[in-house]
Amino acid sequence: MTENSSIPQSFEIISSLRFDPGLSDAACRHASSYPDPHKSPYYLLAYHQDRLIAAAAYFEWNGALSWLQQDLQSFEEFLDTSIPDRSKAWRLRIVVNSKGKARVEASPTASIDLMSMFIPSLHTNPSLPIWRVYVDTQSTTPSGFTTHKTTARDDYTSARLRAGINSPTDLAEVLIVNPNGEVMEGSITTPYFLRDHMWITPPLSSGGNAGTTRSMYICTYVRTHFNGYNVS
After folding, report:
1. Res 20: pLDDT
2. Are the C-beta atoms of residues 90 and 108 closer than 8 Å to each other?
3. What mean pLDDT is predicted for residues 203-227?
4. Distance (Å, whole) CA 193 – CA 152
5. Residue among 191, 192, 185, 189 at smallest CA distance from 208
6. Which domain of life is it from (predicted)?
7. pLDDT number for residue 216
8. What is the Cβ-side half-sphere exposure of residue 1, based on CA atoms within 13 angstroms?
9. pTM above 0.90?
């Protein structure tokens, strides 16, 4: 970690994921494009653990690293204790502080078409809601707080207010841009753009968040297009 003056005095690293009792069956049906563990009800479980580990390493939080580097089964069992009702879907927010103390905040979430959680399709679904999308009028300087997900979210909150998005329930998003005018990410989503019949996300070099769906899509693309080749 190199930046010092811009670091908030107090923050935690976070990752948000979905618990869904129907996910394991859906994942097994799409095993060629969905990573292990297929039988887990937690969406991209290993990717969320890896994301938290990467953030703890970047901020040099040895206590958090020690706790996060447990085996995946133990990590899942820790999450299990936060699920109020395993017959329903939940949105989980994993929060870890510098000492390695972790908590999970579970919130009810709506049922969705689980197909939307796999690799984006070139086919459109007319029943999906249409969102309003804005481009931020001010640039955001990339930092560890844009690459890693933390509770220090002033940049994203400010961008949403500039776009006139006042509620988290609004079907609206604002695209965060860096000083070079490159799209980094959305304030609460990862944007995908259709290029040459392929869905792509902004490159991580733009300064955006190293999110889990980005990682899954990159790994799946490599497995699909470069199977049997040495990819560096």
Report:
1. 95
2. yes
3. 63
4. 27
5. 185
6. Eukaryota
7. 60
8. 18
9. no
d(CA 92, CA 107): 6
Structure tokens at 41: 């009800």
pLDDT band at 123 (very low <50, low <70, confident <90, very high): low
Which residue's structure tokens are 């007319």?
126
Cβ(92)–Cβ(18) under 8 Å?
yes
- One DSSP character per residue, the chain reads ----TT--SS--EEEEEEE-TTHHHHHHHTTTTSPSPTT-SBTTHHHHHHHHHHHHHHTT-HHHHHHHTS-HHHHHHHHHTT-S-TTS-EEEEEEE-TTS-EEEEEEE-----GGGGSSPPSS--TTSPPPEEEE-SS-----HHHHS-BS--HHHHHHHHHTT---TTSSEEEEEE-TTS-EEEESSS---EEETTEEE---GGGS----HHHHHHHHHHHHHHSTTS---
Q: Is the pLDDT of residue 7 over 70?
A: no
Helices 45-58 and 72-80, interaxial angle, to 10°?
100
Which among 203, 211, 87 has a CA at the least distance from the CA of 149? 211
CB 160 within 8 A of CB 222: no
Q: Which of 37-51, 75-89, 102-116, 136-150 has the lowest mean pLDDT?
A: 102-116
Nearest one of 19, 13, 216, 6 to 109, comparing CA atoms:
19
Measured in degrees and rounded to the nearest 5, phi and psi for residue 146 equal: -100, -30
